[in-house]
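Single-chain item
Fold in C-alpha cell form
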Amino acid sequence: LGQNHTIMLSSHLLTEVETIAQRVIILLCGHLGLAKKLSELEADAVIVLEVRGPADQVLHALRGVDGVTEATSRSLGDGLNAYDVRTRQSADLREQVFRVLASNNWAVRRLDLRRRGLQDRWNEINNQDEAALQTSVAPAPTVGAGLAGSTAVTQ
C-alpha cells in the first residue's frame, strides 16, 4: 500500500511513528517545522561532551577540529561544561576531538555520539518561540483542521 499511496497519520506517539513511517512532517502553530525522511533524521549525529576546562578555549579548540561545522556549550557548574558538536556529513570525529582535548590536559567526563531522532527534533521545534518559528520556516500548506502542534506522517 505504501508503495503507491500516501497515508496521513496524526500522532504524538513518536516512538510508534518512527517504527511505521518513512517520512515525517511536524507542524507548529500552522508553520512547517520539519519535513524529512526519517532516515535523514537518524543520519544527523551530534558528539556530546562534558569537559572540565576554560569554556571559551575548549569551544575554540573544538571548532578548530577539521570537519566540525558547529560547536555550542552550556555551563554545568563547578568548571564543567557540556558541548554539542556537529560535523560535516555527521562524521564520527570522537577520536580527533579527544586528542585535541587531551593535548590541552582538559578532563573529559563524557564523550558520546548521539544520533538525533524524531523526539529530539520534536523537542527542538516545540522549544522555539513562535516568532522565531515564523521567521525560520515557511507557512505550512493547509492540510486540515487540528494539525497544529501534531505530527503528520506520510508513509
Notes: The helical segments are 14-20, 38-42, 55-63, 94-103, 118-127, 130-136. The mean pLDDT is 82.
